[in-house]
User: Fold this.
Amino acid sequence: MRSGAERGPLLVAALYLAAALHGLGAADIVGDDEAREAGIVQDVVAGHWLWPEFNAELLPDKPLLYHWAAAIPCAAAGFSETAVRLPSALAGAALVAWTGWFGGALLGGRAGVVAAALLATMPALFDHARVARPDVLLVLLLSIALGFAFRWWHERRRRDATLALVFLGLGTLAKGPVAVALFAFTVGAFLAWQADLGRLRGFVTAPGIVAFVVLGLGWYVVALAGWGERFVHEHLLGRYVRNLAGGLATGGPYSRKPLLYHLTFYPLHLPAVALPWTPLVALALWHAWRRRGFADPRLRFFLCWALAPVAVFTPAEWKLRYYLLPALPALALLAAPVTVELLAARPGVPHLRRAAVAALAALVVVAGVIVLVHGRWRPMSASDRRTTMALVAAVPGGVEGLAVAAGGALGVVAIAVAWRAWALLVGFTAVAVGAWMVLGAPALERAVSRRDSLKTFAGAVAARHPPPDRIVFYGETIRPIAVYLGRPAPPVDAVPADAAVIATGDAAFRLARAGTPALPVLVAEGRIGNLSRGTVVLLENPAVER
Assistant:
């Protein structure tokens, strides 16, 4: 029978999976990134398991492990938003369970359960476990690889080194060489901190290297054999070199943004992606410094792990917050022991000054949120402003409803701080985040879908022009429409006379001014690209009989 410490992470993971699956397919696919992965899954299901493409025009910009995994439920039950997103939700639950198990082995059973709970209630992870992208799968496989690497160092078992290389190969198959870079920085920085770099020679095992080469590099060999120079140009150069070197790849400047932006982006965003548990991470670091000065090898390993995405991704020109997701399991493990202490602490005598300070700090946060909601703080990114507007629309009462909820939370925080009831504060935060995961996140996704989805438009186009009618995109492909059409619709630079044409509103206006004999028959508004909203139009040549 399993002990309570072993069952705890499994229970947390099961609850997490239930929340991740709740309403998983209720929101449509909007935005280019998820649409590209979903379209490649469709092509895999169509039989192109080794060399799939998006809309018969774009190569995958990452290896195919996620697409293969998503193709299984899509092939069994038909393509749907739920089926194509299912591997992300399963990977998120497995990551929570693994973090709890690994934390229990290193820190004790209670700390392991707490680490699993902390990770499970980080919205940054949960949000990405509900989209059809390989990021959470990468975090899972990389975390397992790092866990076995630490066990190899700690227990000196070559079998653990082999297993680490196996999972590193799978992580590379999930998202490419970024897995190797994150793994190498974590292990290398840790061994350097331990003054034990010489141990690296013992990490290389013959079975492990064979497994890594086959799993991690085998797809690249197959892709190069099938796509040849096109794969080099679009994937290796267009994806990896362009993202890392920026404009230097084409002879231009590295970036139009200042150097300070690139140096500070990830250090400033790391605390944000760890919310709501960032204060616990800071408290853990402060306690560690006071007690042992970061001498504990476990703490050093977690720190190297958490800082790996910052170090690896800072040189790249393209900056995205979700690149920090691999740090989240390490931050949860880092904060778990001090959280166990807080949960065991007894409430003390009420302290009004402490409560007033907590209330004032929370009030400042609430005021800042209200300002952001109204869009008056322009440094907020366009994507965040759009998400915030959708959140306001999804909450009963809008801004006033958010203010009421924030006021209630403010009162609980003030009471907990006044009494030093840390267990109450941690529990309240976990319950609030859990409620958001079950109720708020799906409602927000549905609000975004109602505002931005082009699924209905695509369905109307497909019904109006069933095969063998030709459908093309004028200019750039609008990827979610391509997914929901269910068949390739190539982009063209000139409007063919015998095809139905999908174009943006601006493009349709230019065609009309140029005298193109095509009339708009369907019009819709929705997400074009990852951020922009706009009008899309179906154009038909009236001279062509249907």
